[in-house]
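Lab meeting minutes (informal)
Scribe: AK
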Amino acid sequence: VTGGTTFTGSANFNPAATVSNVGALSIIAGVANFSSGETISAVGATTQSGGTLEGSDLVQLNALFTWSGGTQQGTGTTNATLGMNITGNVNLIGSRVLNTTGPGVTTWSAGTIQSGNSVVWNNTGDLNITGNNTINNAFGGSATFTNSGGTVTKMTGVGTTDWLITYNSSGPTNASSCTLNLGNGGSNSGGSNVAA
């Protein structure tokens, strides 16, 4: 598959398929199951407003990813290296690994992230929380966020973000004139800058 790819129904890419480049990836509805045994590369802007991204493949997003709805699940990994905007209610479940890395910035402006079932979110870049949002473990099992040298900032302003999954951080965690509620344990060796 080359060029732009839009999913409004369901498609399965199994080991018999050759998938080299999905171009600008858009998932609107249905299921995009990438289990081809290859790395799936999206070279254009990626959007997911609904539907499900699943499967065992590594999905490499090489441009800004805007996530406003839908589900990511399965045993595969999503790498968002050039920025991610979370702007709506989304599900991150089912052993999925989400990696948000630099040089792009991850901005979470709106919506609830529902997670669980052994999901892992690794962050090594800048994560800016600009809304009063919640991430929870709605699906049971484990759900872990690890900030390895990145920076997590609840942006200045009133209101609260509830972080209700395990939060482990070796990078800075910042909140000023607002509240970042880390309500499900974890560890923080990276220091905090939190206004009283």
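Next up, CB showed the second protein from the same session:
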Amino acid sequence: GDIVLCVQKIKEQADKYGHSEKSELAFLTAHSMMHLFGYDHMTPEESAVMEAKQNEVPERLGITRQEVTYMTDNELVAKAKEAPENSYSPYSHFAVGAALLSTDGQVFTGCNIENSSFGATNCAERTAIFKAVSEGVKDFKAIAIVCSGDQPAYPCGICRQVMSEFFNPDTRIIVEEGGGLKTYTMSEILPDSFSL
């Protein structure tokens, strides 16, 4: 037999049950394998046997299905507000901080790092994204962005393009605006992004 898994369903169930997509994929694969090996869950007794067997496979791989607790938007913004402390912005005097939330609950912070050759400057959003990707994390739920000025810290064009490389269309971008928080989706801030 074959095992066919729907990526969209994996993402939906991971969000619904608070698991990482990796954990959900592992458990759905193990569940499907148990069916191929002849196990079923039509009766309570069969369910108990099958569940024990299907849980054994991911556990042996070190994958747990424990719930991921995500930060609230306010908590993520608070983490972003810590990041500008490390900003290197001697030219613009405009400190920016970002906090990036992965689907497995990790938070990666970033600040802007300027350079006298302005093109070599790196924005806070890209710093956080590159930090996460360099650690092997490529699936994200949200990013919060704050700045030292009074205006909202909207991502620049280059950051939006980098975000579109790693974010899903529904990944949330959170900024402070008008005394509160304003949330946009990736598809809202860059509706027709370039991709190969």
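CB comment: Helices lie at 7-17, 21-36, 44-60, 73-82, 124-134, 157-166, 186-189.
No objections, moving on.
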